[in-house]
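User: Can you help me understand a structure? I only have the sequence.
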Amino acid sequence: MLRDNPLAISRRDGAASGIAIFTLNGPVTMPNLFTLQAELRNGQLPSVAIVDFGEVPYMDSAGMGAIVNYFVHCQNRGVKFLAVGICSRVHELFKMTKVDSIIPCYPSVEEAEAHA
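Assistant: Let's start by predicting it. Here is the structure, written out as tokens:
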């Protein structure tokens, strides 16, 4: 089942210094939360964190809570948080919870980097 699939997370440097791009691949759900939180907070804190949701087909409320938690973590440390590549299904959750009004969303990593 889609919701039970594992979540793969990779981190790479962005085009400019201080930008970290986190690419998520799989559902962002309760069973994947600890992996997600550990990976997002692993390593040196960037000045800009771009989270690429391009390969996230589904997110539940627990997953949204983890994303908001990381957003707040970033805000409290002066890190700019940007989301990219959100599919329509996940974007509906962003809209329904009004998270789209607090987390800047862009269609691509390149566009987000241009606004970093």
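Now, to help you interpret it: The CA atoms of residues 75 and 89 lie 26 Å apart. The chain is about 35% helix and 25% strand. Let me know which part you'd like to focus on.
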